[in-house]
Amino acid sequence: MKLLVILSRVPYPLDKGDKLRAFNQIRQLSKKHQIVLFALNDKKMDDNALDELKKYCVAISVMKFSKITIFFNLIRAFFNGKPMQVGYFYFNKAQQKFDALVKKHNPDHIYCQLIRTAAYAKTHPHIPKTLDYMDVFSKGIERRKLTEPFYLKPLFTLEYKRLLKYEQEVFSYFNSKTIISEQDKNLIQHPQKDEIKVIPNGVDTDYFKAVPYKKEYELLFNGNMDYPPNVESVEYLVNKIMPLVWEKLPNVRLLISGASPNKKVMALKSERVDISGWVDDIRENFAKSKILVAPMQISIGLQNKLLEAMAMQLPCVTSTLANNALGAKPNEQIMVADTPEQYVQCIIELLQDEGKAKKIAMNGYQFVIKNFNWQSASSSLEKLFLKK
Q1: Can you identify the CATH homologous superfamily of domain 2-201+374-386?
Q2: Per-residue pLDDT reduced to its tens digit, 165-222
Q3: 3-state SS of the chain: helix, strand, coil percent to 5?
Q4: Per-domain residue ranges of the chain
Q5: What is the value of pTM for the model shown?
């Protein structure tokens, strides 16, 4: 099968969740199928990106666009009644380039990641298509608008309503629909949402595995540190949870790890809080830490940070919201908390009870091995593509 994949970002390096998902799905699907990749790009491309992607794609087309293009895209979307999330990524030159790719390669199936790319495929009704909603953008915006400044709330409310409408509208464009978790599937407000297939993320357990390393930090938070839900979560961790931890265990150190830490994140740095920024091998930061803490306040999708930490046999503490997507058993495979006091209780228990920490770590590891595998997830995706 020749598969045309449309992405809103070049899926390398793997510093964001959508890139990680797309890259690993492409890698697995390329074992049996020809992959033609069409990726939008609004940033400087990594020097190694094309070399990495050429290992799995028979053809790659990257559509670069500038800040000026983005500005006009957003203006057009605002007046056309489209969500900003969609308008940002849609413009006529890209559509023309995509149409030319379809004509040249004559794909058997089109696979769109995120509703951002759905409009490009709409113009080819004769070709079977699959949309990966991945995350429910409308719910993420609905949660974010609660914490935004008052002067931005009307804009976020408008975006929420438009996303809600658009998520339902694009449903009919596609033969098949996928999403990352059962929790997200239930958030899609469409009468036929049961047709959506849950395709979870996986974790590369040959890469993310326990390694002996000197523990330098008691706690770790990992993720793209310019992503609003991660920024809000790490502010909550440092400002609400850590003061209570330090009252009882003053020497506890926290490492905030991940690409592109913004000004809000950098402001959290102190004698007991380190910020690493991007690292070439993220496994080192996992290995040098005792516990991963992910107090996600705004959570859509599946938290890859939890999968990777559990694969490396770190005990994890997270919110009910994040664990609803993951599906681990609280107090057996993961620790779950929703208030600062509950987080502190979990953290101190894991730090002071080595047996409990080891039990949670090993149970979490077995849970990930059993349930989150890129090969099996991509096999389920492949069956949708081949369905007549």
Answers
A1: Glycogen Phosphorylase B; (3.40.50.2000)
A2: 999 999 999 999 999 999 999 999 999 999 999 999 999 999 999 988 999 999 999 9
A3: 50, 15, 35
A4: 2-201+374-386, 217-371
A5: 0.90
